[in-house]
């Protein structure tokens, strides 16, 4: 089979292609209907011959991991000369699109929740003997927008194929760190050993990647930058100075400090000095964070330059300036917030400005 699939095509006498969903460096992804179970699934197929050679092995790897924070592998088949991997269809967006498209960073409460669930997904994989190797925001799916109803790590199998492309890019093959689509996306989150000694990468590289992602989510900055200029900084592994706003507000400073300390441990240059995935889960389980759903609203008014109201679909919500994380929003600007019973008007905490 050549070219992209078209709507209505039946793959393997079972999976009816509904629509094209997207693509990565290694694969095309489609929405399909399973004609036996009548449920919608994600249908993945390799983009090129290089990926085809590793696809079956990758499917076997992905099927080893079974956890609520990992996308489920449902089936593998060959049809008309092509290979297909069937995964659960996640009705959401990847981490970058869900959390960093409308805001530069997220508040410590949301960050702690993401951290905890990422750690649990990675720990499940490591227990199954699987290293992801290509952890980055586009390989993490979020259901429920800022409310984070579910968080799932994806593409454990595809990451096995990505490993060989990354090796080739680092060691000077047909593609480089700047021309490989896979490497460009992975580089800001790659561990020093993944660049320096890529053939001896172990589970600790995933811990580094989780820490790098969390630094990005919490601060809005890549810990060591992007592109080739990031390489010497990653290899040097000098922990970057967090932005001042992170600890400037007493409402958020204690949790933010705990998060930074855990992130710092994940970004240790020595892989043996990083926490294991199980230790990371334990550290995150001791964080005090809220599971409250988030809403979107617009700042309606300010009074005495100290407090104001947010207009939302549920009515006006009171907030104090000390409940704002990051830049203070102006009247008419959009925010996300969690709402609680305030004994009169509901009260918002935290409040974060979004685009």
Describe this structure in words.
With 355 residues, this protein is α+β, with helices and mostly antiparallel strands. It folds into three domains: 79 residues, Phosphorylase Kinase, domain 1; 193 residues, Transferase(Phosphotransferase) domain 1 (Transferase(Phosphotransferase), domain 1, Orthogonal Bundle), CATH 1.10.510; 59 residues, Nucleic acid-binding proteins (OB fold (Dihydrolipoamide Acetyltransferase, E2P), Beta Barrel). Helices cover 33% and strands 24% of the residues. It has a six-stranded antiparallel beta sheet, with helices on one face. It has a five-stranded antiparallel beta sheet with strand order 12-11-10-13-14, with no helix packed on it. α1 packs across α4 and α3 runs antiparallel to α7. The mean pLDDT is 89.
Report a brief summary of the structure:
It contains 11 helices and 14 strands. It has helices at 49-63, 95-99, 108-127, 156-171, 181-186, 192-196, 204-219, 230-236, 245-248, 253-266, 277-285, and strands at 10-11, 15-23, 27-34, 40-46, 73-79, 82-88, 93-94, 140-143, 150-153, 295-303, 307-312, 315-320, 334-340, 347-353. The strands form 3 sheets. Strands 1-2-3-4-6-5 form a 6-stranded antiparallel beta sheet, with helices on one face. It has a 5-stranded antiparallel beta sheet with strand order 12-11-10-13-14, with no helix packed on it. Strands 7-8-9 form a 3-stranded antiparallel beta sheet.
């Amino acid at each position: 089979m050549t070219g992209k699939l078209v709507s209505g095509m039946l793959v393997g006498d079972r999976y009816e292609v509904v629509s094209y969903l997207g693509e990565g460096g290694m694969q095309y992804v489609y929405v399909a209907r399973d004609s036996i179970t009548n449920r919608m699934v994600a249908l993945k197929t390799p983009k090129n011959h290089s990926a085809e050679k590793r696809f079956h092995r990758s499917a076997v790897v992905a099927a080893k991991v079974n956890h609520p924070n990992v996308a489920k592998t449902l089936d593998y088949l060959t049809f008309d000369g092509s290979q297909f991997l069937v995964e659960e269809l996640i009705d959401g967006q990847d981490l970058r699109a869900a959390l960093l498209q409308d805001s530069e960073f997220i508040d410590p409460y949301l960050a702690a929740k993401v951290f905890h669930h990422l750690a649990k997904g990675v720990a499940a994989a490591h227990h199954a003997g699987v290293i992801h190797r290509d952890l980055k925001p586009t390989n993490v799916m979020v259901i429920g927008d800022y409310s984070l109803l579910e968080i799932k790590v994806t593409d454990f199998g595809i990451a096995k194929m990505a490993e060989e492309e990354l090796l080739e890019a680092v060691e000077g093959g047909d593609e480089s760190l700047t021309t490989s689509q896979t490497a460009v996306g992975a580089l800001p989150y790659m561990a020093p050993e993944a660049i320096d000694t890529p053939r001896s990468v172990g589970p600790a590289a995933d811990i580094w990647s989780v820490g790098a992602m969390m630094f990005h989510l919490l601060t809005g900055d890549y810990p060591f930058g992007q592109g080739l200029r990031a390489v010497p900084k990653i290899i040097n592994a000098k922990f970057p100075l967090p932005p001042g706003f992170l600890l400037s507000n007493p409402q958020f400073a204690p949790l933010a400090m705990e998060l930074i300390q855990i992130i710092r441990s994940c970004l240790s240059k020595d892989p043996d000095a990083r926490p294991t995935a199980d230790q990371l889960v334990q550290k995150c389980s001791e964080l005090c964070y809220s599971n409250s759903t988030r809403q979107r609203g617009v700042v309606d008014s300010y009074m005495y330059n100290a407090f104001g109201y947010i207009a939302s679909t549920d009515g006006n919500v009171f907030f104090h300036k000390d409940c704002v994380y990051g830049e203070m929003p102006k009247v008419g600007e959009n925010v996300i917030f969690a709402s609680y019973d305030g004994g009169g008007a509901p009260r918002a905490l935290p409040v974060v400005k979004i685009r």
